Amino acid sequence: VVVVVVVLFLLLPSFLFFLLPFSVCCFRSVAMNAVRSLFVRSSVPALRAARFTATNADVKAPADYMKPYNKTNTRRSGIVARKLGMMQTFSSWGVRVPLTVFQLEDLQVIGHKTPQTDGYRALVLGSTSVKPSKVKKPVLGQFAKNDVDPKRTMTEFKVTEDSMLPIGTNINCCHFVPGQYVDVQGVTIGKGFQGGMKRHGFKGMPASHGQTKTHRRVGGLGGGQDPGRVWPGKKMPGRMGGKKKYQLNLQVYQIDTRNDLIFITGSVPGARNSVVKIRDSFFKSPSESLPIPTLPIQALPNGIIQVPSSSHDPFNVTPSS
Length: 321
Prior knowledge:
Layout: H1 2-39, H2 62-65, E1 66-67, E2 79-90, E3 96-103, E4 108-113, E5 122-129, H3 137-146, E6 151-158, E7 181-187, E8 192-194, H4 196-200, E9 238-240, E10 244-256, E11 261-265, E12 275-280, E13 290-291, E14 304-306
Antiparallel strand pairs: 1-13, 2-3, 2-12, 3-11, 4-5, 5-6, 7-10, 7-12, 8-9, 10-11, 10-14
């Protein structure tokens, strides 16, 4: 017993020497979190957006939110969603329908742009709530000023006066009606530096008949002594992808109010898990009414709401007598 006590007495200073830096780091981390919490007034709960969400008693019937849509006089806000990937389904006629799935992540109005202060009217939307420690202090002060949760993604949508929403309002998949058409903006998948055949679809040189290491080259650039230069805009090898692109006139096939999902027909630009913008179609206005400015998710039942089935037979099959 005496030997054990002596050994512990000799090892205790060394143990404390190695434990001291770890204790200092833990204390520093706790102190920084406390200071950051005081900076944001320690009043930003995890889901403060619930305070702005209408209760079931305040929610009206869906028809009360629907108004005639005229793109000349009305401009609704778009949404920011995350692209989950693609899938397929079959219509009631047995036609295969390719779908792209999007999910809304804590989408909320976090600010306003007014003609008096900014020269234009717009809504500032934020998506995907994050910890205050993940946001820079100047931006964190803006969230604290508007009394909303910090967001990872922020964007603006120009709107008309009748489509303005209060700060803190949640926007969900009910913002779009199944059957209407939308425009989707995303950043295409980056392919890096590519040649003319992959980037522009060139045919390339012959595979034989005397060709030497020129099978995939673009060929002549077309310039001689006159003009003596390469014309601007000539299709040549270069960086491919990684650009902002629009996919227009895509139909909203169905929405899932339980998981806040939107299913849109066709493919859209962007990689899986990328963030895209979705807005009302500019060239294909809806023939029916739309929820203006938006529709609370409590106004619809939980589940999948699909576009009405068409009465037109796509196969045009007439039974023979």
